[in-house]
Specification:
single chain, alpha/beta, 60s Ribosomal Protein L30, Chain: A, five-stranded mixed beta sheet, three-stranded mixed beta sheet
């Protein structure tokens, strides 16, 4: 696992840890923050092998609308603020199944792009069902919170290449 994500802004290298992203986001969606971290961990070296990328030149398009991922990407790239972050439902891949279909991320930097798709075994159907359920009971909220923490731990405990498949171009 990369200990820190590295980007540049105006000639200065900025480094971000998973803990930094969690402090920015807060406790609501640690799994989404973990996904953003792993996507960036894998994509940044693909976008500029000589790195680091200029943070304000990275664009992100995804089918995933979770607030944890959005905040993780925002902290590192400022893509939300600068309107370089787009949620596009057409990027979803239903053939991957409900648990993975929205976990598709396309990052672009200068002349390069990378598309990352979540591998099997990280998000469960039960998690998706509970996350999408309306009017959850307090017991269901507590269970979902535990599942979010478990998801974050599962994602963060693995190298990014084991969490996401990446293709350049």
């Amino acid at each position: 696992m990369t200990e820190k994500l590295r980007v540049a802004e105006r000639g200065q290298v900025l480094e971000f840890t998973f803990s930094d992203l969690m402090r920015y986001h807060g406790p609501g969606s640690p799994g989404g923050v973990a996904h953003a971290y792993k996507v960036l961990e894998q994509a940044l070296p693909l976008l500029d092998p000589d790195g680091p990328c200029e943070r304000r030149e990275i664009s992100i398009v995804t089918a995933f609308g979770g607030p944890g991922a959005r905040d993780g990407f925002e902290m590192v790239t400022r893509a939300v603020t600068d309107e370089r972050y787009l949620i596009d439902a057409s990027l979803a891949q239903p053939a991957l199944g409900r648990a993975r279909e929205r976990f598709v991320f396309r990052l672009t930097y200068r002349e390069r792009s990378a598309t990352l798709v979540l591998r099997e075994g990280f998000v469960t159907e039960e998690f998706i069902d509970l996350a999408r359920a309306g009017n959850r009971s307090s017991e269901e909220e507590a269970k979902l919170d535990r599942m979010k923490l478990d998801l974050a731990e599962r994602v963060m405990s693995r190298p990014a290449t084991e969490v996401y498949d990446a293709s350049a171009g």
